[in-house]
Amino acid sequence: MSKKQTYKTTGSIERLDPAINDLIPENAQIEVLAEGFTWSEGPVWIEAGQYVLFSDIPPNRIMKWSEKEGLSLYLTPSGYTSDIKRGGEVGSNGLILDKDGNLVLCQHGDRRMGRMTAPLDNPKPTFETIIDKYEGKRFNSPNDAVYDSQGNLYFTDPPYGLEKRMDDPAKEIDFQGVYRYSKEGQLSLISDKITRPNGIGFSPDEKILYVGSSDPKAAIWMAFTLNEDGTVASEKLFYDATGSEGKGLPDGLKVDKKGNIWATAQGGVWVFSPEGKVLGKIKTGEATSNCAFNTDQTALYMTCDDYLMRIKLD
Q1: Dihedral sign (CA 113, 261, 237, 278)
Q2: How would you write the pLDDT of the chain (314 residues) with one tens digit per residue?
Q3: d(CA 189, CA 75)
Q4: Dist. CA 180–CA 176, nearest whole Å
Q5: CA angle, 55 as apex, 6 and 76 as ends, to 5°?
């Protein structure tokens, strides 16, 4: 019988409401699974292979981690496929799967939502463009994305993948947008008012779209109530964390099957009830960029600067 793998642990859990104990066991610890990255981001759980994929953005690569095989390089290049050298955060950011199980990437360097045309179990840096322009103008750098159950794609487009960000001469759109790309191929703007739209996710009934803003002057999450056709019925401020202490800003987020929002922010991952109450914080001690559940939501994987971490859940 093989010995169970153990990992070094770090950080702490701040329990602000008794409800957090139903989500995170009282003896749960934050495990460090892998390290040595430049800026880890965009994790996605692959159920068929029992592994996690995540972006390491500046080196333009995707890494793979599994309990059985540990860490390995999965794909490079991941977000920038041109031969013209440039700096900045060129790689892929958010990673998701479409309804057919294909890997869909927020490609910073190529400034598009792209799809890998090779199968997951035989990856190759061959991509097709899903969408790369709004009204004829190139996106800034798609950052994070989510599909609804009907196959409509929602994504955010801040300037972080541009070499000079807001001051980059290649910037073509004068705002930072949240978009919907319908399964019929129609692009529409959800919002142009969030200064640095970033993490994005749906409530379980898909009636509410949550979007985080990684602007230090407006470190907020917005909640958009959607009509059946995907248009916005109303919007409201979900939570304002501007001025909160800790490394990082609102970034990626995921919503569990009970509607709780697990959002990376200052100090780690903040856990909100659907009503906007902070139930607790997973304090990684690092600037935490994003997170992803495994299929049955018994574990949360977190990309934390130069680390990949995990915490076991109830």
Answers
A1: negative
A2: 345 789 999 999 999 999 999 999 999 999 999 999 999 999 999 999 999 999 999 999 999 999 999 999 999 999 999 999 999 999 999 999 999 999 999 999 999 999 999 999 999 999 999 999 999 999 999 999 999 999 999 999 999 999 999 999 999 999 999 999 999 999 999 999 999 999 999 999 999 999 999 999 999 999 999 999 999 999 999 999 999 999 999 999 999 999 999 999 999 999 999 999 999 999 999 999 999 999 999 999 999 999 999 999 98
A3: 31
A4: 14
A5: 110
Q: Which residues pair with 236 in a beta bridge?
A: 223
DSSP code at position 174: S
Q: Tell me if 94 sits within 8 A of 41, measured CB to CB.
A: yes
Distance, in Å, from the CA atom of 278 to the CA atom of 268, rounded to the nearest integer, reads 13
DSSP character for 223?
E
CATH architecture of 9-312: 6 Propeller (2.120)
Rama region for 232: left / alpha / beta (φ>0; ψ in -120 to 50; rest): beta
140: closest CA among 188, 107, 104?
Answer: 107
CA 294 vs. chain centroid, Å, equals 14
Hey, where are the domains in the chain?
Answer: 9-312
